[in-house]
Amino acid sequence: MTLALTVNSTSHTIEIADENTPLLWVIRDMLELKGTKFGCGKAACGACTVHVDGEAVRSCSYAVKFAEGKQITTIEGLGDEKNPHPVQQAWIEEVVPQCGYCQPGFMMATAALLEKVSSPTDDDIDKNIINVCRCATYYRMRKAIHRAAALMSSLPLPESQNT
Amino acid sequence: MNQDKKNTKKVSRRSFLVRGGLGTAGVLALGTYLFRNPIRRVVAGAINTADAPFSGNTDTPIVWFEVTTDNYIVLHSPKVEMGQGTFTGLAQMAADELEVSMTQMRVVHANSASGNVDGFATGGSTSISSLWMPLRELAATMREMISSEAAKKLNVNTSDLSITDGVITGGGKSMTYAEAVMGVKDWKVPDTPKLKSLSDYKFIGKPIARVDLNDKVFGAPIFGMDATLPDMLYGAVARPSLIGAKYIDANTSKAENMPGVVKIIKEKDFVGVVANSYIEAHNAKDAIEVEWETDKNWSTADIRAMVEVGKGKAYVIQKEGHPDESLEDPTETIISEYWSPIGAHAQLEPNGALASVEGERVTVMISTQVVGLTRDEIAKRLDLDKNEVNVVPTFLGGGFGRRLHTPNAVQAAVLSKAVGKPVKCFFTRKEEFQNDTFRPPTHHVLKAKLKIDGTIEALEHNVSSGDVAFGSPIVPRIAEPVLGADLGAWRGGMIQYGAIANYQAISWRVKLPFATSWWRSLGLLANTFAIESFMDELAVKTNRNPAEFRLAHIQDDGRGKRLKSVIEAVVEKSGYSDEVINGKAMGFAVSTDTNTPCAQVVEVSIHEAEIKVHKVTCAMDPGLVVNPDQVRAQCEGAIIMGISAVLYEKMEVVDGALTPTIYGPYQMALMKHAPKEIDVVLLQGAEVPGAVGEPPLGPIGAAIANAVFRLTGKRLREMPLNLDKNIVS
Description:
The complex is a heterodimer of chains A (163) and B (729).
Chain A: E1 2-7, E2 10-15, H1 23-30, E3 49-52, E4 55-58, E5 71-73, H2 75-78, H3 86-93, H4 103-116, H5 122-128, H6 138-153
Parallel strand pairs in A: 1-5
Antiparallel strand pairs in A: 1-2, 3-4, 3-5
Helix pairs in contact in A: 3-6
Chain B: H1 5-8, H2 15-19, H3 38-48, H4 61-64, E1 65-67, E2 73-77, H5 86-98, E3 105-109, H6 127-154, E4 162-164, E5 167-170, E6 173-176, H7 177-181, H8 213-217, E7 233-237, E8 246-251, H9 253-256, E9 261-266, E10 271-275, H10 278-286, E11 289-293, H11 300-306, E12 313-320, H12 323-326, E13 334-340, E14 352-358, E15 361-366, H13 371-382, E16 389-393, H14 408-419, E17 423-426, H15 429-434, E18 442-450, E19 456-466, H16 479-483, E20 502-510, H17 524-541, H18 546-551, H19 558-574, E21 585-593, E22 596-607, E23 610-620, H20 628-647, E24 652-654, E25 657-659, E26 677-682, H21 700-712
Parallel strand pairs in B: 2-3, 7-17, 15-16, 19-20, 23-26
Antiparallel strand pairs in B: 1-2, 4-5, 5-6, 7-10, 8-11, 9-10, 12-20, 13-18, 14-15, 14-17, 18-19, 21-22, 22-23, 24-25
Helix pairs in contact in B: 5-6, 13-14, 17-21
């Protein structure tokens, strides 16, 4: 069947046999946007997190049919090198990634959190950022989340990690 | 030290470059091995000490570097980037000798066809240390080669040239490296130039931002699972759930009619599917009725019983004085036992490969720590010459030792050959959890006798473990009969307190019915948990401050000095105290991994039986530090990964299957479990870089358990630490 999707503000029409196919595989293998990762296929790790109408969604367990007519944003649409999203900017300034595989999912989850809670407390971060990072970059991620919040609200910036 | 045979026999007119493979970090190597046999020392040295030589191509600079027309330098790294920051450190080392800026450096993975293949692996915390000499020498040599070409083109003497940021100036003219190398066909390799002095380096020693930062922040397709080729299809291979399951046969009739199936491939040792999409391939694979042969319905209790000290084969790996005699009288001997569970790698990117077999040419794109081995295994299975197989390593979505054997590349190649198109074949998460090469479970028996003055007269560590190094194809077959004891299992298992008169470490080897192998830091995590918890027990028994108690048993040699320094530094920085203040207690532990000593102090509280780590202070001496920011990042990550393993992680064996098979039930540290403060102090007790990626995993387990004891009076002797179930002393 034919489905119309809007991904990173671009309209796509896809032909797909099974409308229950997880959105993740449509994004990765049909639209060739590889920044969204497969980690577990059971919504347990968050590596596949994208935004659907601004909400953080684990796309490995989200049927593509539910995405029709909605605004989908992936890491590629969050920002780019010329115009990084404040979350990406903060990630760069705190030098967060190690292997990097899970990082797009964390940045997408963080960007969605900051839309709802502009200045999250540590407790807000603990309760909402529940993805898995095996390199365990959580320490720098927490700093980067606070930094991103400051960048978005022009609050005073915390001292940079990499100085 | 460990003169690697491969390196010493390669002496030629270019031996100046070969020499670079041998570091000089020997001062801290844990001494008193019983391995006097030279073969034993070579094998043990290559894997267990930080001065393991680099065993790749060190005599052809042009294999390592490329100059682009817009004057970038491309470094073809034989070491893979799995998060440890190696690409950045190598770029710093090369840039400083090449006289280019960091922004001109590009680092890519060397593919196996390039000729720049590591003969061993990426692992063991050796990437920076083993390339410290050879890479700088190669870069300096390359710089000289380029400038002598420039001298010819500019018609001036090389001695009249100066270089800034890859631009060569002399005789009033200048040209870029790119212009200098253009058209050069025959390179002459000169004698190795003298390396710059450390104080002249602009990048080495500085917190340069990671070179892969932008790719990883903006979602570039850099990982194995992101690889694509035109006309690519998707593969899936049936993998067993049960321990010891052997593939016998498969009924594929149902699978053949599943949507999207292109072909079902039955081989002598596996059955696989090729389909049009990932989902279709895995759905069809799940519809195959596979006949597996198993011999026993294993349980956690079976495995635990196998791992008890005394059941396997014993090898004395370290012995000083007369520990047996000293520990003879049971009434005077203090004994404690410790346990650690089966651990999963749980790296986020599953294993898998994209293979393309076109006639006799094979290309495989894969996240692997063993590029050469993977090439060799594919060539063998497809009966091809090694040179016809090109393994192209990608960035790894986590390594941690899980990718020190990637035979799944062979399966992808077989599937590709069967359909005549590129095939991408990946594990599911469940397959990943059940077909891991696990961290083996361990059992430890510690024995000590105290003197009247409260110091230790004799100390003994017994560790029983499943295999780590043995069974791994990167360890030479000769290692097993020669060494006896598994050198991965006893990593961190030797006694580091050389001032004790009588001590020994005994490694008990157990062959488990499922694959166990390298897991970041190998035996270090569990061995240090056991030894340093026991040292704390002895300190408590003798009413000594735990740090002072350690210091009293450290010898006065070079290794001892570095060990004492990290202890003193961590005590000072953390303000260590035995007191419980505001419901928080501190815990101390220290370890030596290869040549890197590391001491940690944790601050812990307990709320409703849940152990919470608030702060970790870490003092580590990895020798010379190339990138302090990335060394800190490794410490932070290793500490939290250690917390994860020590407080939460555990695989069980239920009805013959390893379980759980998904994140969540396989509990791991999340954001909420990470300490909010991590304070890293770096000391430099050696002139060359040592191990970084694994050593900070050592002390964390015992440090937490020791803090819990101060808080509760309960001694937790089993990982994961659990206040409800553990034995109370």
